[in-house]
Design brief:
The radius of gyration is 17 Å and the shape is globular. Strands 1-2-3-4-5-6-7 form a seven-stranded parallel β-sheet. The protein contains twelve helices and seven strands. It has 238 residues and is α/β, with parallel strands linked by helices. It has one domain: Aldolase class I (TIM Barrel). The protein is 45% helix and 11% strand.
Length: 238
């Protein structure tokens, strides 16, 4: 929840003026009220557009909510679901999020499904168990083709907005676990084909080392994406 509309458009203008790696899949995820204007600005680029959330119903008496059909009508390609802040502040659990995943898939958009453990869960050695449950409850209702339309994002909650980052070894370990968990439910091809992003205080200073890990396919970036130069640098970190 950053930047008003004019500030968001200025940021995107500055991003588009930067030299980015055009071969890297790049997705912008602004607030709801920016989506239509941002989509127009992206019309002649290869940058995708994501919403930060959606409601699990197509329509109805849900004042203040936004449906997938509404998002699709303004050109959204992806929807972030289950972000750690949604789980923490709005008490969304993986089963509730699974209904949103289903709705996004039904409408031909691509979910970016977030999973990850809190600091307490990691200290207790529960992180693998927590992540496995989040995957099972949030994604494993999908068939193989539907799952391949998803992107998974691993967010160690203890490393979001704290300046603390999981070491490349820690991040790689969890990404490998996610891939193995998907393989056990589906198959090796599906596990190797799905993109798994790392989202925990990614910034230019650590991006190259993180993205060089074999099972880390990209980043779900927060604060570092609010500066055009930083954003562009991240696209060149692969």
């Amino acid at each position: 929840m950053n930047l008003n509309l004019n500030e968001g458009k200025e940021l995107l203008t500055n991003i588009l003026d930067q030299k980015r790696d055009e071969d890297v899949i790049t997705i912008i995820a602004p607030p709801y009220i920016h989506l239509d204007s941002i989509k127009r600005m992206l019309s002649h680029t290869n940058i995708g557009l994501a919403a930060q959330n959606c409601h699990n119903q197509e329509s109805g008496a849900y004042t203040g909510e936004v449906s997938v059909k509404m998002l699709k009508s303004v050109g959204v390609d992806y929807v972030i679901l289950g972000h750690s802040e949604r789980r923490e502040y709005f008490k969304e659990d993986s089963i509730a999020i699974s209904y949103k995943v289903n709705r996004v898939i039904e409408n031909g958009l691509r979910p970016i499904y977030c999973c990850g453990e809190t600091q307490a869960e990691r200290k207790d050695g529960q992180h693998f168990e927590v992540i496995k449950e989040q995957l099972e409850q949030g994604l494993f209702q999908l068939n193989e083709i539907e799952l391949l339309n998803c992107i998974v994002a691993y967010e160690p909650v203890w490393a979001i907005g704290t300046g603390e980052t999981a070491s490349p070894a820690q991040a790689q370990e969890v990404h490998t676990f996610i891939r193995k968990t998907i393989e056990s439910q589906y198959n090796e091809f599906t596990a190797n084909s799905i993109s798994i992003l790392y989202g925990g205080s990614v910034k230019p200073a650590n991006a190259v080392e993180l993205f060089n890990c074999s099972d880390i396919d990209g980043g779900l970036v927060g604060g570092a994406a609010l500066q055009a130069e930083s954003f562009a640098t991240l696209t060149k970190s692969f």
